[in-house]
Specification:
MetI-like_sf, TM_PBP2_N, transport, 15 strands, transmembrane helix, globular, Maltose/maltodextrin transport system permease protein
């Protein structure tokens, strides 16, 4: 019995196909895989989270009247909902999340740092001019004879040890209770508080009244707290009394200056620096944030106290980064080559032992190494019978930090070199041996170039990391030793530790100045990385 043929001349009922011969139905371009309930639920949860974050972010933007930011937030949220509620633009569904994270965590911080570099932002110059005037006036409040005194209770919003402080004061005239903080004073309803005999508040809704011990632990904060009022400001007198004092220094809009009613001194507003300045050059500590143009950058280049040590620090910074990266690479590669030999036994045990430094917290190990290099009781001197003052001399301190970096960094290079060696075919090295090449010639002509092709990006990133390795210096030598004539710049300081000491060391934080030097460092590392990557691409073309 023959089977029906599907070729010419065969008979088949119209519209009928043999069982098993029907072709699979192909999906047209307009059709998509149906969304499962699990996928739909995940989409609803994620979009709900996006909506919640958008609503949460909208309130402070509205309060600050940042309408451009609010419009950008609304447009971004609407775009995300459109993108993920339609079946179109499938590639964008995968690209948009990564792009948003890139903008939020890379581009925005870099742009903010760059914009800060052109301002005087720092301690004393954080807010606007009006805020500076209020701070100057309230800080100068003094008690005057006959001023009203109030029964005082100190309370917090939340944790008594860390929560923001508020004053609960009782007016001796009518017994009314008011609550005050740095933003001002407001009355409380009688049913919101419990007042003990003598006028002190013993309980207040939503606040924790501090006992004597808790208040004593935060006594300096209580002394520093000033509550602005219509007639002056409230300050504490001990832990149980407060007084309404009068501001000695007041702002005069006619001359755009601050006058001291007791001494008669005047400080005139200098808009270029965001400070009130007296005729003799004295500046009030409280100022406001303004743009200063290129002043932070020119300060680095023209101030002899900064530009003088800057070049020497830069040279040592390059030497440290190159030495740390090159030393760890050479030692890690040498160990990897030794364990890569087929004649080596027990390689797994050796590998476990060799990566121990990499598994330990570098923060703790740096502190341990600092003690090991101690002149009097350190392990290094005691073990070898030395009397070297490692951190007291310039070159011994530099050698010490490079040795520490060698110990901490070679396990990483050992791991990546091991992986790269395993990817190099043994036939290549065996072919060089057949041609009569020595092991060194084989390594130099075949193994090393192929290793560099694979590891060059890692070496460049390691260089960039070591160029800004703050912990390696600050936790071991703290930048020292320091010369007698310049306590701000030490022999082992990198640009990043030198910047930290300049911007945050003496007279408060100078974020604008720190951001300017950070841009210098960024430019240096970017140029070095760009040149290195260009050379790496040429090398890849040669050995491709």
């Amino acid at each position: 019995m023959s089977t029906p043929s599907s070729g010419p001349g065969s008979t088949r009922a119209p519209g009928r196909e043999p069982v098993g011969s029907r072709p699979a139905k192909s999906r047209t371009a307009g059709e998509h895989t149906p969304i499962t309930l699990t996928g739909l639920g995940a989409k609803v949860i994620l979009l709900g989270l996006v909506a919640g974050i958008a609503i949460w972010a909208a309130f402070p933007l509205v309060e600050a009247e940042q309408w451009v930011g609010l419009a950008l937030l609304v447009a971004t949220t609407a775009g995300l909902f459109y993108l993920y509620l339609t079946r179109r633009h499938v590639p964008a569904k995968y690209l948009v999340p990564g792009t948003l994270f890139l903008i939020a965590f890379q581009i925005v911080p870099v742009l903010y740092t760059a914009s800060t570099a052109f301002t005087n932002f720092g301690d004393g110059h954080r807010g606007d001019k009006q805020g500076a005037i209020v701070a100057i006036q309230t800080a100068s409040v003094e008690q005057v004879p006959g001023s009203t005194e109030y029964a005082l209770s100190v309370a917090t919003e939340g944790d008594p040890a860390t929560g923001p402080l508020v004053f609960l004061v009782t007016d001796p005239a009518d017994g009314a209770v008011s609550i005050g903080d740095a933003t001002g004073l407001r009355r409380l309803d009688a049913d919101e508080v419990t007042v003990a005999p003598g006028g002190k508040v013993s309980a207040a809704g939503g606040y924790t009244v501090l006992n004597f011990g808790q208040a004593s632990a935060r006594s300096q904060e209580i002394i520093d707290l000033v509550v602005p009022t219509a007639g002056g400001a409230l300050r504490s007198s001990g832990l149980s009394r407060a007084y309404e004092g009068k501001a000695v220094r007041a702002y005069d809009a006619a001359c755009d200056c601050v006058r001291d009613s007791e001494t008669g001194r005047t400080w005139t507003a200098d808009e270029s620096t965001g400070s009130f300045v007296a005729d003799d050059g004295e500046r009030l500590a409280q100022g406001w944030k303004v743009g200063v143009g290129l002043r932070n950058f020119t300060r680095v280049l023209t101030d002899p106290n900064i530009s003088g040590p800057f070049l020497g620090t830069l040279v040592w910074n390059f030497a440290f980064a190159v030495g740390s990266t090159g030393g760890t690479f050479m030692l890690g590669t040498f160990v990897a080559l030794a364990l890569h030999s087929p004649r080596m036994r027990g390689t797994n045990l050796y590998r476990v032992l060799l990566i121990l430094p990499y598994a330990m917290p570098s923060f703790a190990m740096l502190l341990v190494w600092r003690d090991m290099f101690n002149t009097d009781f350190g392990l290094i001197n005691n073990l070898f019978g030395l009397g070297v003052n490692w951190f007291g001399e310039q070159w011994s301190a530099r050698a010490a930090v490079l040795l520490v970096q060698l110990w901490l960094g070679y396990p990483y290079m050992f791991l990546v070199a091991t992986g790269a060696l395993q990817a190099i075919p043994r036939e290549l090295t065996e072919a060089t041996s057949v041609d009569g090449a020595s092991p060194w010639q084989s390594f130099r002509a075949v193994t090393l170039p192929l290793l560099l092709v694979a590891l060059s990006p890692l070496l460049i990133s390691s260089f960039a990391y070591n160029f800004n390795n703050f912990n390696a210096i600050y936790l071991t030598t703290e930048g020292g030793p320091f010369p007698a004539d310049n306590p701000s710049n030490g022999a082992t300081d990198l640009l990043i530790t030198y910047t930290y000491r300049l911007a945050f060391g003496g007279q408060g934080a100078e974020f604008g100045f720190a951001a300017a030097i950070s841009l210098f460092i960024f430019a240096i590392v970017a140029v070095v990385s760009a040149v290195s990557f260009r050379r790496t691409r040429k090398q890849e073309e040669v050995y491709a």
